[in-house]
């Protein structure tokens, strides 16, 4: 550290007090004052300029970023699988309950039919017994037997009709309940998807990437329609996609007619509707038609 010394001289010329009172006798008096000042200059702060990252460092950063993304995707897939398994368990539980009710209903109908059959047989027997006592034992028994047979046949026919009606009612009930199960499943699936798919950047990737990977990027302009709330996240994700596909040409547009978290991808050759409700409607239709064919 260097110290610099500065010396200044102040010379003041003034008249003596005598000359101040008498003009005829002039005397000049000089006075010298000496001022010393020490100044310590501040040392310059030398900051090392940042060196640009090397190629290997850039690759390492890119690798780390991709690893983080993969971990996030894996975690999200695990969460979705857990929700799916829980949902399957709930459906199986409801199906078991439903079929138990059907078995109990069928058993109840059979017991009732058998009780009615026994009751009619007993009435026929008593009728034949009374007729036998009136017109003769043998004749009465024979006629009672014939009457009992006729009543038994009638009961048997009625029992068959009851069974047919019951079977038909069971099939109708089964179809109605099964359609209800499918609708409940669709509603639950929609709620789960809307809860998980808030269209944050990571989750949006799971929705868009499989579709974008299948599209021809060269000479193909891709228009992506989303709601206003999802415009910023979608733009951000597509800009990152462009880093991987330099020839990707796209535009992200707002369409407020779309449902919550809805998305439509339009290219030069096709339109892909990724709205959740439409996808679930197609799933419900396929499930119902598949069950009807079976």
Automatic annotation (TrEMBL):
| Protein biosynthesis found in the keyword field | no
Q: Which GO terms describe its cellular component?
A: cytosol
**Which biological processes are named by the entry's GO terms?**
bacterial-type flagellum organization; protein transport
Where is the Flagellar assembly protein FliH/Type III secretion system HrpE domain positioned along the sequence?
Answer: 156-281
Keywords linked to the UniProt accession? Bacterial flagellum biogenesis, Bacterial flagellum protein export, Coiled coil, Protein transport, Transport
Quote the InterPro entries the UniProt record gives: Flagellar_FliH/T3SS_HrpE (IPR018035), T3SS_Stator/FliH (IPR051472)
Presence of the UniProt keyword Coiled coil in the record: yes
Instruction: Classify the source by domain of life.
Output: Bacteria
Matching Pfam families, A to Z?
A: FliH (PF02108)
Q: Look up the coiled coil feature and give its residue ranges.
A: 58-97
Q: Which family does it belong to?
A: Belongs to the FliH family.
Role this protein plays: Needed for flagellar regrowth and assembly.
Q: Which named protein is this? A: Flagellar assembly protein FliH/Type III secretion system HrpE domain-containing protein
């Amino acid at each position: 550290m260097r110290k610099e010394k500065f010396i200044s001289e102040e010379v003041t010329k003034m008249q003596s007090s005598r000359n101040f009172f008498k003009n005829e006798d002039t005397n000049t008096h000089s006075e010298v004052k000496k001022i010393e000042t020490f100044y310590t200059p501040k040392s310059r702060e030398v900051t090392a300029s940042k060196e640009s990252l090397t190629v290997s460092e850039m690759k390492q950063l890119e690798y780390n970023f991709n690893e983080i993304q993969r971990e996030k995707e894996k975690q999200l897939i695990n969460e979705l699988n857990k929700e799916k398994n829980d949902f399957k368990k709930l459906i199986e539980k409801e199906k078991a309950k439903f079929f138990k009710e059907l078995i109990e209903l069928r058993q109840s109908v059979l017991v009732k039919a058998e009780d009615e059959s026994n009751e009619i047989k007993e009435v026929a027997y008593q009728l034949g017994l009374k007729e036998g006592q009136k017109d003769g034992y043998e004749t009465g028994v024979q006629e009672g037997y014939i009457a009992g047979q006729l009543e038994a046949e009638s009961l048997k026919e009625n029992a068959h009709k009851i069974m047919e009606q019951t079977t038909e009612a069971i099939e109708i009930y089964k179809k109605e309940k099964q359609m209800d199960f499918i609708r409940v499943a669709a509603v639950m699936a929609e709620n789960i998807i809307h809860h998980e798919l808030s269209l944050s950047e990571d989750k949006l990737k799971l929705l868009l990437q499989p579709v974008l990977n299948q599209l021809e990027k060269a000479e193909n302009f891709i228009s992506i329609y989303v709601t206003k709330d999802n415009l910023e996240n979608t733009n951000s994700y597509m800009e990152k996609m462009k880093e991987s596909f330099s020839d990707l040409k796209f535009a992200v547009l707002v369409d407020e007619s779309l449902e919550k978290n809805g998305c439509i991808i339009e290219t030069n050759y096709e339109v892909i509707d990724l709205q959740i409700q439409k996808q679930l409607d197609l799933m419900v239709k396929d499930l119902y038609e598949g069950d009807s064919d079976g």
